[in-house]
Amino acid sequence: MSRQSPLALSLRHLTLVVISFAMLVPFYWVIKTAITNENIYAYPPGILPRDPHLFNFVDVWYLIPFPRYLLNSIIVSAIAVIGNVVFNAMAGYALTRQFTGRRAVLALFLSCMLIPFQATIIPAYLITAKMGLLNTYFGLAFPMLSTIVCIFVFKAAFEAVPKSLIDAARIDGLTEWRIIVRVLLPLSKPAIATNVILTFIWSWNNFLWPLLITRDPNMQTLPLGLARFLSYMEDTTGALYAFAVMVLAPSILVFLMAQKEFIRGLTSGATKG
Question: Does 177 share its domain with 233?
Answer without folding.
Answer: yes
